[in-house]
Queue: 4 jobs
Job 1
Amino acid sequence: MVRAWVVWSAGVLAYVVGVMHRTTFGVSGIDAAARFDVAPTVLSSFVVLQVVVYAAMQIPAGVMLDRFGSRVLIASGAAIMAAGQLTLAMTESLPLAIGARAVVGVGDALTFISVLRLVPQWFAPRRVPLVTQLTGILGQIGQILSAVPFLALLYGPGWSVAFGSAAALGVLIVVLVLAVVRNAPPGLAVVAEKVTLRDTARSIRDVWFRPGTRLGFFSHLGTQFSITTFALMWGLPYLTSGQGLSSGAAGGLLSLSVLSAIVSGIVIGVLTGRYPNRRSWLVLFIMVSNALMWTVVLMLPERAPVWLLALLVVVISVGGPGSAVGFDYARTFNPSANLGTAQGMVNIGGFLATLLVILAMGFILDAKGGYTFEAFRVAWTVQYVVWAVGIIGVLLSRKRTRSVTGVTPRTLSEVRERIRRDREG
């Protein structure tokens, strides 16, 4: 059991640094606009391309994960992200900088689902929901690294030192992962046999047409995008330029987001493990509460008080650990051999929504004259379309899952137990 925690901790540390790489551009957005002399729409294209690459890589990453295992993909992801950050540290060329963020997106895509894959291999089934939540919420410490020490380096020694330091930390992670992480305990095979391209395509199709996978996809889509959009791109500009906070106060709210995710993630992990037949209601509650909280803030005709912005950050941050319920659906309704592919499909949901919202907000901010209170007030309203899609998707796919698999609230725990026995057998 001690070794399991050691292996998992190394994987989580890799994910922490991956989240830091992912969010560094969000906290440096205004500096990037000055460095590369670009408008909001062009600036958003940095993160948009990064998220496009991340989302597009999820299914290939899942297939590779099923084939090669977690150790290879986590180490590769860390090396690729370090290369992207180093390029960004050294260049003043706009096309090269955009390409560097795309490279970061590739490495990022390999990391999270690979760390998640370690959990059911190293831990007993009863621990998996809670450890899965811990994986997601501890990874968000990377936001603190980007909001505090990285931001201090950016405002102190400058751009090149900040991004160069991030790259160096990534190299250390590669060494740690290769030294510590193993795919599974000795004697337990977790990678698939070599298959043909046709077999791979058939497997991808089969995974998507399992309604439980789609339930996970829409759960992830509707819960994760708001806080991810906030952390990746528009949160810091909104708080500083739109709401008039200092960079220190804005960084403090981003750190509050991480603390909120940690606390709520533990609660969600316990609830999903104890009441698996009520997971969809938890997901729906998170979507509705996010929408209501944003409504309160956006209805104000002037800047919100700090306490209300703090409450907004706390509420939307629950969406991060809430999205992990989608991965629990992937695990519940897919065999172990397809788990990486299923998790990749689920992970597309939230990041696809994030991509669309970031891009739409960039266009709206441009049209409304930049980073003003009123421009942000209009731009954030694009979120309501995604919440509507997410809620409808969860309701329809939940109904389909129960009708196709025969799963009702009373039989779901029996299905989970059968899948567990199949994996162990």
Job 2
Amino acid sequence: MQISDSSSRILAGMLEARTGQQLTMSRRWRLETALSQLLRERGIASIDELITILVMGREPSLSTRVVEALLNNETYFFRDRVPFDLLKASALPELARRREGSKTLRVWSAGCSAGQEAYSLAMLFAEDPVRWNGWTIDILASDVSESVVERARAGTYTQFEVQRGLGIQQMIRWFEETPAGWRAAEALRKSVRFQVHNLLEPPPHPGRFDLILCRNVLLYLNDATRRKAFDRLSAALSPDGWLMLGAGETVIGQATSLETDREMRGLYRLKDQSAKAA
């Protein structure tokens, strides 16, 4: 399917205006694949025809569906594994020490996609009941896409999705096979709250988090937008909290308020903050 340059530019502009994400030339090959299902559902013959409908402005909801289709929602349980090993072995035990007085921990999974990252976090806590007995663990998961947030909240995955990153024992323990797919156990679903949120907006309630995961989200932002996102993340971070990014992301040269934690490699903290107990 041929896509005109003007149609590509219009779609790229829509995506950036709504989400801050850039549709670079290297990603434009995804247009046909990303929009094919929507075109079939609506009986639209081509992307150029879709653009004509959008430009006429008669169906505002259609533009929302187009933008959500263009978002990259690739994720899986315990993605890349090493970051979760770091959390389990070092970061979470240290946060438990720092928050021993309040026994309250707030975690934010920003750009959660279909929820696998948030449920992976919930499993880390649930599988260490002795350490977290009596604690209030608030896990917030957010995404700019309303459709993926709805899907994450439902907690139902295909056979392929539930097997990506999970061992057989975890899959059996935390998921139940249903006619609709593999659904997360009720206890797991109740341990995470989901909401639609744009990373470029003010931080969601409660506004200060002890741990923020924002992995593989900032890759698709331009420099100016990425700096704004880092400002938002910094504002949402507790004074001695940590930010975790994706493997290909860094704060170096991009965020004035954040720095690498030399004692907890792979995590970032606010500058000029000592790791004192809260």
Job 3
Amino acid sequence: MWFWISCFAAGVSLCLFSWVLTRPLRLPPQPAGAYSKHIGIRMIWPWVAVFAAASQPFIPWPMRKALRQQIQKAGLDTAWHAEHIVAMQMLAFSCCAVPAALAAWIYSSLTLTHSAAVALGLGGLCLWWPRRWLAQAGLRRQRQMLKEFPFLLDMTTLCVEAGLNLQGALQQAAANGPPGPLRYELRHALADMRAGMTRLDALQSLADRTDMPAVRQLVTALGQADQLGMSLGPLLRAQSEQRRAERFLRAEKLALEAPVKMLFPMIFCIFPCTFLIIGFPIVVKLIGVEF
């Protein structure tokens, strides 16, 4: 009798657990912009949405502002908010801490307190991953924009020297420039200008979204030229040459860093194999001589 009652209770508990676990899949679909191109983000997004709704009231405003800046820097769409990053952290912590605690408690001789400490340690490492992913996405986007920036400046300079005004030159650069995040941000700035925002404010918003010193310097120089009535052709030409020189300097820096980065694999991977291949016949001969 008690055996069947226990089986029934276990079955009900399993059904309830499965219902709670799969409930986010039955929620109304999110807008298409909320999903990333990454397949992993698309798979976990229903649970991210649930955790985001639960964590939204508890996120402090300084943290919310910092996450909003990082999301903007990473180029994620407007459907992403600070609570989604916090939800990813909570989901990563739950997926790592709970199985680690159960495994450490069941399959080892650790006490419950030690198992909880192990789970908190692993969960803390997983808690760090979403913020790291967001920061790396922003850095990759900035590196790509730095590659595109000199070419867009060259096109803008040529159009200004050919007789177009600055907004027309920017429109030509946005229409014919290389596809990438900087071209998208430039089109966003031009859309702000068409919506009624002043040119300087739109370019300042562009500098804030990209968070790149090179773009900030260009916007500052354009603002000073607009106030003083300077000619834009020589100014843009000087900015273009400076950005191209900085790009060559970054390439030289990476080339000089390559030998230093190769030391670790050479010392710990290549050299031991080489010494093993060279020394093994010598050791065999020495052993043969001793016998």
Job 4
Amino acid sequence: MSALVRSSDPTGSAVFPPPPGRHYRCTPWQFVVVAEERNFTRAALKLGLSQSALSGIVRRLEERLGVRLLARTSRSVAPTEAGERLVRTLTPMLRELDQSFADLSEFRDRPAGTIRITSVEYAAKTIIRPALIRLLAKYPDINVEVIVDYGLVDVVADRFDAGVRLGEQVAKDMIAVRMSPDIPMAIVGSPTYFERHAFPENPEQLVDHRAINLRLPTTGVLNAWRFIEDGREIRVHVGGPLAFNTIELILDAAVDGLGLAYMPLDQVTEHIASGRLNRVLADSTPPLPGYHLYYPSRRHASPAFSLFVEAVRYRA
């Protein structure tokens, strides 16, 4: 029986069979899966092996190398120092193999493969989701996994194919593809909130207000609100009783009258039109720079990935 050594899954693993004639002999690839999963049961399920067979494979690899690769207890499995070094050595090779097998989709009638994207919530909802409706209807063999994260993710280290962030946040050594125009922003509060607080006439008056903030995971700080003052952009941290890591919860809290929210304008337009929210400081609130898809310049673009890039590319 031919085994899949790694599977296309949320861990960013690759798909390929063991070398011909090797079968379940002590190859290091199965060990990498165990090291990533830190659990023999989960790794065995992923590899299509029994737990005892997988344990024997790893044991024979350790015997062949003459070093302990995994520290085992009754409850956990973790790589030793030698095991960590082997994982670091093998990971680039696995990714190259992953890409090589993905490239074979060029010889298929329809592009196929899995694409992993890290994106902020707003871009995933307003740009990626509509693009996927069109893309996946035409190319059903393409799989796309979108992980929402506001942190500045290293797409290479974290095994993503690409990331989505504001243009100003993309590193210079990355290829960047614009996905959106600049993003109008709005500061809003509910009528019940403004029954208790006066409308601010300038950003300085926000010190007397209560903000509903977005917590950024990379730094742990609250997202700054941007304003234009005397022709230059300033960034202000507005204090308040609430912080969330999703804009949906921030919007709900603003509608509930719990404070002011700093939101993309298109997310609150209907609420403003219906009177559920009031917009303030419109003339002082500049747009954010547009979102960009970014990926390593050395990345070889598979047909599936190229189609995804074109699907999300901004066209004015």
